[in-house]
Structure formats: C-alpha cells, structure tokens
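seq:
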Amino acid sequence: MEQIALPLKAGNGPARIVVGAGNAHVAEALVAPENWPFRTAVLTGPQRSGKSLFARWFAESGAGEALDDAHKLDEDAIFHRWNRAQESGTALLIVGGEPPWDIALPDLKSRLGGSLQLDIGLPDDEMAQELLMSLAEERGLPLPADAAGYLIPRANRSYADLERLVATIDRLSLERKTPPTQGIWRAALEALHGPDEPRLL
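struct:
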C-alpha cells in the first residue's frame, strides 16, 4: 500500500492520499497526462474519496490544471475552460461528483465524453485499513496497530463512513478522557450503527 503525501494540512498532520485497489488507476493516470485523449481527464467518485486531494496534487505537481467541483459550476464556463486548455496545450483534470454526471450542454457532454474517464471505487479491506490508520494519524489520534483489524470488518465500507468512524472515536476518547482502546472503538461503532447491529458481536 502506498501513500502520497501532499503539501497540505488536515488536522494535526499532513494530508495524504492512500493509494489502493479503489484508486490506484487514478494515481497512475495522473502522472501521465500526455496519454489522455484531448489531454483531458474527468475524475468522479464517492464523497470524501480524495477527489479534491488528487486535484490539488495534480495541480501542485505542475503536470496541468485542475478544475475541482466542476459539477457545481456553470456548464458554459466549463466548456470555455476546456477550450482554453486545448488552445494552450495544457492538460486539464476536471473533477465531478458521484457518477453518473448528467451534463445538459451537448457540446460539453460530447467533449468530456471523449476524455479519459476516471472513477474512484470503494476501498477493499487492505486499503480501508490503511485509510483508517492514515485518518487517525492526521488527527493525531493514537490508534494501536490492531485497531484496523477490529474496526474494518465491523465498519461500513465507504470513505465518508470511515472518516466519521475515526472522528467519533476521537470525540469519545476526548470526552471520556481515556485512550482509544477497544471499549471506545465499540462505542463508536454503536454510535454510528446502533447497538443491535449483528456485526458488532
């Protein structure tokens, strides 16, 4: 498992992209924009899956420009940005939301449809464990090595849910003024999923 460190801050530590089964193809594509059709890529994926971090990393690397949260922007503005990038020969990473991204403007739809499509998938067990520990590190939360093995089989498999789980562990640990041991982990899972969830047993 690989982590890409970014020159950003999130919580008490550096922001990181954990590269694994759900996003390795994205990391590989972003280092070779010369291979993109029309030198344009469209990145989509679940909430909190690191799309904006990938965009910042791409822009900071100097490989090209990134247009984040493009699905919230005026489509004519995106179309003109695409044209400017084509005229200048600049690689352009366009970040949308969760797929499918329904584009109404025909000219923009056809151009983005012919671009490289990158969609971040859900993490597998290994990636989820690494992501959970990375999120804890960013918060300065001292999770022991066996925490991921206990939590991941009992947690929902999504980026946003893993982030909420770490935040809940952190909050409970602070409220109870106790280290985040298994009792805190279980309380956090119950707070998110309810005490009767079978997988908590």
